[in-house]
Structure formats: C-alpha cells, structure tokens
Design goal:
It comes from Streptomyces chiangmaiensis. The chain is built from six helices and five strands; from the N terminus they run αββαβββαααα. The protein is α+β, with helices and mostly antiparallel strands. The protein has two domains: 77 residues, Ubiquitin-like (UB roll), CATH 3.10.20; 66 residues, DNA polymerase, domain 1. A five-stranded mixed β-sheet has the order 2-1-5-3-4, sandwiched between helices. Helix 3 crosses helix 6. The longest helix is centred in the last third of the chain and has 13 residues. The N terminus and C terminus are likely disordered.
Length: 176
C-alpha cells in the first residue's frame, strides 16, 4: 500500500497542540479532536454547527457569545473548549423546553427585545442567568447585571422590560 501523505512529506499524526475533548452540550455528548487553543465559541460554531452563539468582538467585550457553563454564564470567546470538558454547556439552542420557548425568549418576543437580533442569543442567555442569580429585582439591577451585553441597535428599554416581565411573571422556574 502506497502512503501518499508520507511521500509528500505530510504528517498525518495529531498536532502537538491537539487533544480529544468531550463536550456535553445541551444534553448531548460530543467527542472532538481539537487544538488545545480553540475557544469554546469556535468549537460550538465551527465544529458543532451551533451558530446561535454569536461571535461579536471575539475579545469578551460584547457578550454576544454568552453561554451557560454548569448553569453560570460565561463568555465562550474567552473560554477554551478544553476548559469546558466534563461540564454542562447550554447554548441558546438548548434553552427552550418541551413546552416551547423559555419564558425569557417569549418575553423578548412580546416586548420586541431585539432589532437586528445579532446580540439576542447572548442577551437571553445572560438574562436567564441573572434571574437564576436573583439579580432581577429592579430595572437598575437588571441594567447593571446586563451591562456586559451590548446591543448596537439600542433596544435596551425593551430588553429590560422583557427581563422585568419574565422575572415577575411567576409560575415558572427561571433556572435552566
């Protein structure tokens, strides 16, 4: 058998910086061979096709890439995929339940908490987390704890109204 890769000087062995990583995303387990330097954001989008998590600034300044890691919000552009191994990852794709959209998703729709929609997944993931952290007691508190999520369209009043309604709606658990 002819080894064309060897003849052409191509090394098909795993790169020194690669390792096998198992990610538990939205209740499913995925085993991937990844460069140890790849971010969780890039693994989700480029390797798993979960494009709901957005790449905005890629520097941790806009919040568009917010996901939950073990129920806590993290910026996936600043988190290495290898750091998430063995932890529960929830993306916007995994937020809705069997009975339809999450209450925060419904409130965003009802209050038009988005315009272009680019930041919406990160906004919603942060909103769900701040509610489970007990930080939705007032509009000022909501604004403070959502300040890491930027909306270039300026839909902030609608976003705050949506979170306020979801947090005060009662009758459901805001946790994941």
């Amino acid at each position: 058998m002819r080894d064309v890769a060897s003849e052409q000087g191509i090394d098909d062995r795993p790169a020194v910086n690669e390792r096998v990583v198992t990610l538990d995303v939205n209740g499913r387990s995925y085993t991937l061979r990844l460069d140890t330097r790849i971010t969780l954001l890039d693994a989700l989008r480029d390797r798993l096709g979960m494009v709901g998590t957005k790449k905005g600034c890629d520097q941790g300044a806009c919040g568009a890439c917010t996901v939950h890691l073990d129920g806590r919000r993290v910026l996936s552009c600043l988190t290495l995929a290898a750091q998430a191994e063995g932890r529960e990852i929830t993306t916007i794709e995994g937020l809705a339940g069997t009975d339809g959209p999450h209450p925060v998703q419904r409130a965003f729709i009802e209050h038009d908490g988005f315009q272009c929609g680019f930041c919406t997944p990160g906004q919603i993931m942060s909103a769900v987390a701040l509610m489970s952290e007990g930080r939705a007691g007032s509009d000022d508190e909501i604004r403070e704890f959502m300040s890491g999520n930027v909306c270039r369209c300026g839909a902030y009043p609608n976003i705050v109204a949506a979170i306020r309604e979801a947090a005060s709606g009662g009758g459901y658990d805001a946790h994941l």
